[in-house]
Specification:
With 93 residues, the chain is an alpha+beta fold. The chain has two domains: 54 residues, no CATH class; 33 residues, no CATH class. It is 38% helix and 16% strand. The protein has four helices and two strands. Strands 1-2 form a two-stranded antiparallel ribbon. It starts with a strand and ends with a helix.
């Protein structure tokens, strides 16, 4: 993909991107000039749809587990993961 991106703080764009009454501080505007999709075989070769190759979500560490491992348990952990849904709702939108 080739193109350009820019950050805008235009009031109209920010207002149009509000979710649940909360507007972002800025928006990212992406203009795509070209997309290259030369090899459809690449998707087939990836075996993306083969369920035998899928990773169990249970085997992927949570954000809290990752943070705990990176900070010697100073940040993160189970309490971080439990609080995440409400924290995301309050801070992301």
């Amino acid at each position: 993909m080739n193109g350009r991106a820019r950050i805008s703080i235009g009031p109209a764009l920010i207002a149009s991107s509000a979710i649940e009454g909360k507007a972002p501080r800025s928006v990212l505007i992406i203009s795509i000039d070209t997309i290259f999709f030369q090899c459809a075989r690449a998707l087939v070769r990836s075996d993306l749809w083969n369920a035998a190759n899928h990773v169990s979500l249970a085997s992927i560490p949570t954000a809290g587990q990752i943070l705990a491992a990176l900070t010697a348990d100073r940040v993160g952990g189970e309490s971080y993961d439990k609080a995440w849904p409400e924290r995301a709702k309050q801070t992301m939108w």
